[in-house]
Amino acid sequence: MLILSALLLVSIMGYTQEISPDKVPAPVKQAFTKKFPTATDVKYEMDKKNYNISFKDKDAEMSADFNAYGKWMETKTKMTETALPKKVMKSVTKNFAGYTMSEIATVETVAVKLCYEMVLKNDKLGYDVQFSPKGDILKKVPLKKSKVEIPGNEKK
User: How many Å apart are CA 87 and CA 33, to the nearest integer?
Assistant: First the structure.
């Protein structure tokens, strides 16, 4: 009942909320520890109905999502622009000329073995885009207007 109440409260609030480890269900902790046994600097958040866990693993900054039953949903690993495959960079250059790149990560899900995700912005538009390892655009979601502003170009 307590977990159900917490889930309802979080869904009403509509944002990610950091939670203490003692509030995380045992199946989530067990599944996380099994999948990432060498994780350090672990932080837990509640995101709608899933648990988002941020951590470091072998010096990589990562996050993983699990449902309340401990089922793994997604893993993101932060990366640099220079680490992107050439085919992905070629697609970015071709399809998003004049855009700046940030928040670059590899993404693994149950449905998609591996893709590359990033935020691409120019002066007026911004997108959260996923690319296949071959450079194909898998997903392109417009950013909300407040996220499109590029540092240094903020309205005063």
Answer: 34
pLDDT digits (tens, 9 = 90+) for 94-142: 999 999 999 999 999 988 899 999 999 998 899 999 999 999 999 999 9
The count of structural domains within the chain is: 2
Report the distance separating Cα 130 and Cα 116, nearest Å. 5
Is there a domain that residue 32 lies in?
yes
Distances (CA, A) of 50 to 70, 80, 106, 125: 9, 27, 20, 29
Put simply, whether the predicted model's pTM sits higher than 0.90 gets the answer no
Q: Round to whole Å and give the CA distance between 46 and 31.
A: 16
Q: Which CATH number goes with the domain that contains 99?
A: 3.10.450.360
Angle formed at CA 57 by CA 27 and CA 130, multiple of 5 degrees? 85
Report yes or no: 45 and 39 within 8 Å, Cβ to Cβ.
Answer: no
pLDDT band at residue 27 under the 50/70/90 scheme = very high
